[in-house]
Amino acid sequence: MTKLQKDNEKAAVSVTGLTVARGDRCLFEQMTWSLAKGNFLAVTGPSGVGKSSLLACLQGMITPSDGECHLNVERRSLVGTVFQHLRLTNELSVLTNVLCGRLGNYGWQRTLFGFTTSDRLQAFQIITELGIADLAHKPVKNISGGEQQRTAIARVLFQDPEIILADEPTSDLDPALSLKIMGMLRTLCREGEKTVVAVMHDRELVEEFADVELSLMADRSWAIRNIRTT
Question: How much is the pTM?
Answer without folding.
Answer: 0.91
